[in-house]
Specification:
Elements (H helix, E strand, L loop, with lengths): L3 E6 L10 H15 L6 E7 L6 H6 L2 H4 L9 E6 L2 H14 L4 E7 L3 H11 L5 E9 L6 E4 L10 H17 L9 E2 L9 E6 L26 H15 L6 E3 L8 E3 L10 E4 L5 E6 L3 E7 L4 E7 L1 H5 L2 H13 L7 E4 L12 H10 L4 E2 L7 E2 L1 H11 L7 E2 L24 H4 L6 E7 L2
Parallel strand pairs: 1-2, 1-4, 2-3, 4-5, 9-12, 10-11, 15-18
Antiparallel strand pairs: 5-6, 7-8, 8-19, 11-14, 12-19, 13-14, 13-15, 16-17
Helix pairs in contact: 5-6
Family: Belongs to the purine nucleoside phosphorylase YfiH/LACC1 family.
GO biological process, one term: regulation of defense response
Pfam family, one: Cu-oxidase_4
């Protein structure tokens, strides 16, 4: 069942501009007649002319809206300078109400354009259907026709213009939840490496569980890739790395490692490089973003270590890749564990807890319970030390003699970090990143 209807009157053909009230009235009549009870939410998208007063334009549509009492509280007119701005505003309204099934009624000539906007500003969480707004030659009779057959793809230059419009609009938006904040470790020498762990502040993501500097998009979440890309652009500007040379692991919750410059695996949870100016990164919400730095051989690495990756030894696999690819000495490698869910909050079924108990009993709390508390950080430290990493070269929450703590519990700090464990499936993601300075 359609949850919302979007009426696109943003760019009507010239012969229809003078009849906008008639178009709107007839369209709303059709919606009102065809809709089940309660009526869907209706959003009318209109063009705001440069320099015009928004209220004046909206008032010009009031006569067409006044008779639709069943829709009145569910009807909103959105005036914007660009299609990107109007559609993004409507997306915010849809997300506030958790609406996902949308019908778009629009002029035939706008359909292919609108589909490009939708593809960029929405994810697979949303379902769209399109209906043509057709007008008889006398300009008086309106009918909503069945969707027409698919036309040819838009010219490449038109798609590029739409992308540019969306990017410019997103770049103009203010940062949410304060300034962008980056946590840095005193263990990694900043004269050789650029590195940091992000928090959730300083981006433009507005959905509560994703707000505000979410750095991961998927088909199951409501943050589109263009928003994540804008958050990442702001991070790159604040941190000082080149976004064109940014590489993030392709998560598989396993222990494969990508060596930059060699054939890239289809998926991997660790990545290493000795190329200057190349920034590598690993995400984390509850999983650990782990950074590796060898100041002697000037090489670095990043790994994503969840409970599965921890058990599979992804951190030592990343260390071993640095040793084999760049001749690093394991005793020179520095390792920093970033923000992740702590043993205060994280539980696993007893069967999985047994595997951590075999690493070391201190990795499990309340072992006899059905869902013991798990310390994936301690397990990671123990496995790293067993592989030859010096204890003093590892920074996590067990280290108290560093200048600052980096490994906060993400679940315990909702104002600073994202957490899948705490927030559910529509959760945000922070990252750990590192590069070798030029």
């Amino acid at each position: 069942m359609v949850e919302a209807v979007l009426i696109d009157l943003f760019s009507l053909p010239p012969n229809l501009q003078n009849n906008i009230q008639g178009l709107l009235r007839n369209t709303l009549e059709t919606i009102e007649k065809c809709s089940s009870i309660p009526a869907p939410f209706v959003y009318v998208m209109c063009h705001q002319r440069q320099g015009s007063e928004r209220n004046g334009e909206e008032e010009s549509l009031f006569p067409a809206l006044s008779d639709f009492h069943s829709l009145k509280k569910r009807l909103e007119v959105v005036h914007s300078l660009t299609t990107a701005a109007a559609l993004y505003t409507i997306k915010q309204r849809l997300d506030e109400k958790d609406l996902s099934i949308i019908k778009v009624i629009l002029p035939t000539l706008r359909k292919d354009l609108m589909k490009v906007y939708v593809d960029h500003l929405f994810t697979a969480v949303y379902q769209f259907e399109f209906e043509d707004l057709q007008v008889a030659s006398d300009g008086e009779n309106l009918q909503i026709a069945e969707p027409r057959s698919e036309g040819q793809a838009l010219p490449t230059q038109d798609v590029a213009l739409i992308r540019s419009e969306i990017q410019m609009y997103l770049e103009s938006l203010p940062s949410l939840k304060g300034e962008l904040t980056i946590l840095r470790s005193s263990l990694i020498p900043d004269d050789i490496f650029l590195h940091g762990f992000t928090t959730r502040t300083g981006g433009i993501s507005y959905i509560p569980t994703l707000s505000s500097c979410n750095l991961f998009s998927s088909s199951k979440r409501r943050d589109p890739q263009v928003v994540v890309k804008e958050n990442l652009r702001r991070l790159a500007n604040a941190a000082g790395f080149n976004l064109e040379a940014f590489h993030r692991v392709k998560i598989d919750h396993a222990n494969a490692v990508c060596v930059m410059g060699k054939m890239e695996p289809d998926s991997y949870d660790g990545i290493v490089t000795n190329q200057k100016g190349v920034t590598i990164a690993a995400p984390g919400a509850d999983c650990i973003p782990v950074l590796f730095a060898d100041p002697v051989r000037k090489a670095c690495g990043a790994a994503h270590s969840g409970w599965k990756g921890t058990l599979l030894g992804v951190s030592m696999a990343t260390v071993n890749a640095m040793v084999s690819a760049y001749g690093c000495n394991v005793k020179d490698i520095l390792v920093v564990l970033g923000p992740s869910v702590g043993p205060c909050c994280y539980k696993l079924p007893h069967e999985s807890a047994e595997e951590f108990h075999r690493i070391d009993p201190t990795c499990v709390r309340q072992f006899d319970s059905a869902s013991p508390y798990i310390d994936i950080r301690r397990a990671t430290r123990i496995l790293l030390e067993s592989g030859g990493i010096l204890p003093e070269n590892i920074q996590d929450d067990s280290v108290t003699d560093q200048n600052q703590n980096i490994t906060f519990c993400t679940a315990c700090h909702p104002d600073r970090f994202y957490s899948h464990f705490r927030d559910g499936n529509n959760f945000g993601t922070q990252i750990g990143f590192i590069s070798i300075k030029d």
